[in-house]
Amino acid sequence: MASRVVVMKGTYRDSITVMKISNELSAASGIRSAAAVMATGLNKRLLGDLGFRAIEVESAGPNDLVVALEAQDENALGDALEMLDRLLSARKTMLSGPAGPRTLDSALGMLPDANLAVISVPGQFAKREALRALREGLHVFLFSSNVPAADELELKRIAKDSGLLLMGPDCGTAMLNGVVLGFGNVVRRGPVGIVSASGTGSQQVSVLVHGAGLGISHVIGTGGSDLSEQIGGLMMIEGLKLLEDDEGTKVIVIISKPPGPPTAEKLLVVARQCRKPVVVNFLGRSIESTADSGVREVATLEDAAKTACALVRGETPRVEPFSAKKEDVLAIVEREASSLTASQKYVRGLFSGGTLCLETMVVMTPLIGGIYSNTALGGSHTLGDANVSREHTCVDLGSEEFTAGRLHPMMDYTLRKMRILREAKDPETAVILADIVLGIGSNPDPAAELVPTVAEAKGLAQRGGRSLPIVASAIGTPDDPQDLTRQRKELENAGVVVMESNAQAARIAALIATRGAAAPRVFGSAAHG
Amino acid sequence: MGVSGMPLQTRARSIGRTALERSSVRGAMGIVHSIFPSAVNILTRDNHLISVVSSRVGRGPINLVADLPDRAPMSSMGLEEGDDVWSGGAALVVPDRVVISTEGASVYQPERSFGHALLPASGIENNLTAMLRYARVRGRSAVAEYVMRRLPDTPPGRPEQSGRPAPSSSGGGLSTEMQVDSFAGAALPRVSDFLLAVQERSYPRIRMSASNLIGLGPGLTPSCDDILAGFMASLRFAEENRIIAGDHITRVIEEIASCVPNRTTILSEEYLMHAAVGEANEPVVSLLQRILTAGPAEVRSATRRLLSVGASSGTEIALGILLGLRIALGRRIALGVAA
């Protein structure tokens, strides 16, 4: 057996380095024990008790590093001392800074103050990662889809019990303290808080609030299935409570596709108990009178934004079918519809946002009748083949059947451009309708993508002896990376009718397709929307 | 060194109260004592430290948080151990290498008294339980883990009469038979003895048992020092918020502090003496604030941040906080071993 004590006078190494030295020496071949410690009185005494006695140790002080080694023979001891030299000289490399994180643990090591994890892994691994994050006390933004409902329920119960948010699965949009997670727009901070099961729905309301001169406190996403009967709106309720307690939030907007009656009633009970005004938009649900409480149920996303702004300002909410004057709208309808042929009867809506597709159907169905879709409101209007339009059609290009193995249509316009050209060739197409969602995460320049396709589509129709109105809603702000003003201008220059909301785009498309016949229903019905 | 041979010019985002006092002299102030990835320690002429740290380390009484790019290592400042450091009043200067302006830097003086935001004892106990459970799973200190194994998740509602060990928890991630290293084995009976002395208000024994802890354990700040630092800081916070009477606390801390000089490393000595007056680095203060005023989720988050400090120091400080606050709440702690 051989032992050695090495004293390094005035040598300061950070604790992690010292521990690394100690651990690696302990694990070295032929080493029975190893310790690297500062030579404080007690540490020296302990080393003495362990059999490490040397004059050098006695003379060492608290600010000296001492390394004690016990090896099975001199050879092993020599190897260990060489290793010690290497470990000490490796210090400069260790000082060169950490590498990027590859795991949740290493990310937390680099950012120990973090209180939220963004998780985007294949669905089968999402639960494991989300559980780890929740156990670390982190809120979770779960971008992953294809997470089983039972797993979602388990995760959300754990989150709720821990006072944490589990946003998702399949959550595309949130904005917390002004920081956008996933897709989102550059909007000012302000008094309107949103808790939403719809990403594009949140974006639509956010940009309209911004456009009205107000701002957003937070957007809490819940994931699309939070309001299913199985999940029961767990995170919607938690989000509502958080916004209720948030000093910066004055009015709360709730957005979702219509939940089942029990969940809807549960949510409305919580909303009625809220100390702040709550605007509810369950798209497609018949509106119940809630005038006796602080809850206002509205029909569209635009109505939600306008109502929230009015409540913040202490005004009576007032919703109109269009921002522009009626005569100006009808002039556009006249211009676009005047050269339609008799065969052009149908609206063809091509959407990147599922909620925007749904809202369009909610708005247009009373105006033009049944609409076929891959996400139809009623089973009788479900498209047999989502790739083939039939009469009035609205297609959600962001649904699973279109996005499997490819980027979401908010980023990748390829499918939509192809579909525009196909609809342009159809002599029954009266209007092509599309949503253009700007903001962080979306396609960097939708106008550049679409303008050549619009020109080609109009050319195709013209060669068939038709004109082809194209209507779009632009969901964005001038501060978005794509610049709403520029996008709008370039699209309008290409002959696109650009509306400032999805609901307005749906209405004007219906007006064009009906050659203005729907005007009484549009201008008469919206007064109580 | 900056580009073209010019010294690197940066500014301090924040400076601790002690660091401000120590750097307020003009002229030769000290030398670069040690360089770590996230900190450069300056040894002043009267043998005290000022730590120039990155924002990752955070604010603290002796810390000067330099405005460096995120994740830039301290070695990027081009300093070497032994470099002379000068003070120009509103700047620290290492000639030809670095100028750190302290003008406009915010002075770190964290709030310690919470008034109406203070939780009731039951809320604080719940938070301590959350912290203990988290630290058991995520802790990185053999010494602290060995002690924590013997602490119940929730202490009895009134002082225990026997000195038997508390039942060990079934939770946590420790192995059933954790290999006890030499330091952990040496520390446990000493910590036990110290806690008994504090609870029995035997002041001479507090001094003796504290002297048996200071300087014991691995690390640049030895493990038992970190436990004592967390212990003293938590007692000062408890005293400030009238959870426990000040006279007893003052006496306990005086006894511990009297043992500190010349028994441990200079950095540890700094931390201990600041903890004795209730001052500590941001992760420690943040955890204390949250235990006393917030909920378990926030406590877990703050615990996580503290556990990431050093190789094992954060876990040991967390243990000290747990012990200090349980004693402040009148809970009896018996580790069941004799020194």
Verbal overview:
The complex is a heterodimer of chains A (529) and B (339). With 529 residues, chain A is of the alpha/beta class. Chain A has 20 helices and 19 strands. The radius of gyration of chain A is 31 Å and the shape is elongated. Chain B is α/β, with parallel strands linked by helices. In chain B, 41% of the residues lie in helices and 15% in strands. Chain B has an 8-stranded mixed barrel. In chain B, β3 and β4 form a beta hairpin. Residues 158-179 of chain B have low confidence and may be disordered. Classes of the chains: A alpha/beta (529), B alpha/beta (339). The interface between A and B is large, with 39 and 53 residues.
Give the gist of this structure.
Chain A has 20 helices and 19 strands. Chain A is α/β, with parallel strands linked by helices.
List the helices and strands and how they pair.
The complex is a heterodimer of chains A (529) and B (339).
Chain A: E1 2-8, H1 15-26, E2 31-38, H2 41-49, H3 55-59, E3 65-71, H4 74-89, H5 91-94, H6 104-110, E4 116-119, H7 123-135, E5 139-142, H8 149-161, E6 166-167, E7 173-176, E8 179-182, E9 189-196, H9 199-211, E10 216-221, H10 234-245, E11 251-256, H11 261-273, E12 278-282, E13 295-297, H12 301-313, H13 326-337, E14 346-351, H14 354-368, E15 372-373, E16 393-396, H15 400-403, H16 414-425, E17 429-437, H17 446-463, E18 470-475, H18 484-493, E19 496-499, H19 502-513, H20 519-525
Parallel strand pairs in A: 4-5, 5-6, 9-10, 9-11, 11-12, 12-13, 14-16, 14-17, 15-16, 17-18, 18-19
Antiparallel strand pairs in A: 1-3, 2-3, 7-8
Chain B: E1 8-16, H1 17-22, E2 26-35, E3 39-44, E4 49-53, E5 63-66, E6 84-88, E7 91-94, E8 98-101, E9 106-108, H2 121-138, H3 142-148, H4 182-199, H5 203-211, H6 223-240, H7 246-258, H8 266-275, H9 282-293, H10 296-307, H11 313-328
Parallel strand pairs in B: 1-8, 1-9, 4-5
Antiparallel strand pairs in B: 1-5, 2-3, 2-6, 3-4, 6-7, 7-8
Helix pairs in contact in B: 2-9, 2-10, 2-11, 3-4, 4-5, 5-7, 6-7, 6-8, 6-11, 9-10, 10-11
